[in-house]
Amino acid sequence: MGWFQGLRLRWFLASHGLGSCCDFVQVLYRIYLNHSKIIHVRDGYPVYSLSTPALFSPPAAHFIARTLYRGIQNRNLPNLMSLAVTDGCNARCGHCSFYEGIEDSSRSPLDLPELDRVIREAQELGVSIINLVGGEPLLRPDLAAIIGSVDKSLSTVLLFTNGWHLAERARELRRAGLDSVYVSLDAADAERHDALRGTPGLFARALDGLHQARRQGLSVGISATLTPEAWAAGELERLVELTRRLGAHELLVFDALPCGRLQHRDDLVDNGDWVEAMIRSADRWNADPSYPGVVFSAYISSHRSVGCACGTSYFYLSPYGDVMSCDFNHAIFGNVRVDPLWRVWERLSSDPDFQQAKWGGCKVKDGDWLERPTVQPGRARPVPPLSV
Length: 388
Known about the structure:
15 helices; about 15% strand; globular; ten-stranded mixed β-sheet; 12 strands; two-stranded antiparallel ribbon
């Protein structure tokens, strides 16, 4: 390159580089989330979704670096882990995927030293997003210590909770390093929500917890699981308006899956028309900056975004250390009390059923995929441990 061409390139980068970077960010999030608006600024960093590291934050740098190495090494690396920290819960939700098939009173959940080791091993593998789930994770007394064991330069920490104990613990958890919290609300009115979750008074406690979490500077969202019946009855619009009124930053919608207590719902298999209509209905809210972000698990796992990432970039760790491809498929690929996490991940990500993302959406809702022998939605399948 001659000196004149080099000068022109430098001038072009100086005059157009910022605009090009902004265009890239907008396209990146629009593909992933189906919107590209900043929903919150946390600790000085812009947040597009609670489920991703804040833009320009250290965990975002870790995510990008690991994505680069994933290409160089030509192998799957996990960027997201759902970590179940307890098997206890104070609610009895009709759609629960944990209760049926996973809960085991004969085994004890991982203790703090075990969790500290597993978190470190997960971050070494490339995990930049850690979802804390349960059971109900706020029932764990040492939850702040678990959060404190996460290297915050590598991973963002996100809590999923029914909200019962959130108000009194929000400050403690924020000080420990919690970044974001999703409070589960499956209906916009107290009576309906409490009936769905089998817990009187839960709606009011959840709202109180959400308010306290906002006061502590956390990114806050509502997580909802909707059935076809709830969608047809207009529950999504009511939840969007509730999210807006409460000042929450995001509404995350899960479409009900045929697993756990809903494993008898065969009508949820190969039934995507209502989900597609639901996703499209949110375009008007996502185009309006006065509304919170409205994101759908089904959109993210579809051909338009990253596809079903179970076993390719995501895994679930049960309270007892069992590694599964996700919270909704209960086939077990190993246990971290027996083998180091990287060995179990190698087994999972090398399995022919999980080597590639499924572009057609969630595997658990695909009738053809459900016929495969490794798939056990709603039922645990023991796998012999890897040799050390």
